[in-house]
Design goal:
By secondary structure, the chain is mainly α. The protein is built from five helices and no strands. Helices cover 60% and strands 0% of the residues.
């Protein structure tokens, strides 16, 4: 299958208002939604179209509460790039299954959350009667 890279190319636009950003997100979502059957047939995926669309929806829902127009523009740019690479068959099946369909793992922790976990670990070691035993923590 030959690909025509320019058929999906779009000029990068900067949204000057939340309404423009919302319109760009909706257009990208529609492109992914309409391209789902073609993506499944191109990559011969063993998933149904509704399941693939549900995964697309989940990916968009992850960023639902982003309100900064610059951040939205960046996400739309990355989403458009992913769409173009997917539709032009520039990815392997593993990329599609791993990136698009895999659920997100553990949520990212902030600096303070990591710091408090370390402090709690140190306090727990200090409270233990033997503390460090032969170079290993009791936990």
């Amino acid at each position: 299958m030959t690909t025509i890279p320019a058929r999906l190319a779009r000029v990068t636009r900067v949204a000057h208002s939340p309404e423009q950003a919302r319109a760009a997100v909706i257009q990208l979502y529609r492109d992914w939604w309409r391209g789902a059957p073609e993506i499944i047939s191109i990559y011969t995926l063993n998933v149904t179209v509704p399941f693939f669309r549900q995964c697309i929806r989940r990916r968009f829902e992850e960023n639902r509460y982003v309100s900064d127009t610059r951040s939205i523009d960046h996400l739309v740019l990355r989403g458009r790039q992913e769409y173009q690479e997917t539709m032009n068959f520039w990815k392997n099946t593993d990329h599609i299954m791993g990136i698009l369909l895999a659920p997100k793992g553990r949520p990212q922790r902030s600096f303070l959350q990591k710091f408090y976990e370390e402090v709690n670990l140190v306090l727990a070691i200090q409270r233990h009667p033997r503390g460090w035993e032969q170079g290993k923590p009791w936990l």
